Amino acid sequence: MKALATHRHHPMALLAIILMALIATGGLFAVLSPKDASAEAFSASDVAEGKKLFVSNCATCHGMNGEGRKDGDGNTNGSSLIGVGAAAVDFQVGTGRMPMQESGPQAQRKPVQFTDKQISQLSAYVASLGPGPSIPTEEQLSKEGADVTKGGEIFRINCAMCHSASAAGGALTEGKWAPTLRGVEDKHIYEAMESGPQNMPVFNDNNLSPEDKRDVIAYLNQLEENGSPGGYSLGALGPVTEGLFAWTAILAILLGCAIWLGAKAK
Length: 266
Known about the structure:
By secondary structure, the protein is mainly alpha-helical. Helix content is 55%, strand content 3%. The strands form two sheets. Strands 1-2 form a two-stranded antiparallel sheet. A two-stranded antiparallel ribbon has the order 3-4.
């Protein structure tokens, strides 16, 4: 200790302390930081092939390196993909939303343009640009032990205001909309919660745990299985369509009766 004390005023002492602090901080960050599972699951050849597909099909809008692009007026043509992760690519490309068919308020779902292998390769390349949400595993998508009741509560609190209580979707502002969640793969629902596509907020593990996401998906599956117990759902859009249908049907019946009585009176 006396030997160390004699060197505490050495000109290099402060530099040595700073260097040790940086090494310790870097080591702790490497140990404690979350790993990007998607990047670890892909091979170098997947990343290389994915880059070729990206340059051919996506770089026009998103930039050669996924950095995004703006037009001459400063408007964004394609957002940056750095840090969006493999989940965002698998969702957008796997549902046919990307590549976009035409410019508009938001990307519309359409037939998928790539094979599963190509989607995986594109996901690998974008995941290599920066850490982000990974594609969910079978374990994360397993609904074994899922709490449907809790999933319904979470859905009504966080999702129903846009997607409606029946998950049929609904209109938003400026020509945008919340799509229906019926007929959507479990994987894509999980990825949407993780990546927050279009106008949807991100529900990462700090907001909704993997168990919560599993419960929500189980609830949505049950909604589809139950169908419409009351008969024809009229799009499951609520009392507006139901009232319109009832008013139209009753009015048609009254008009029919009036015409029949008038014809009989003659």
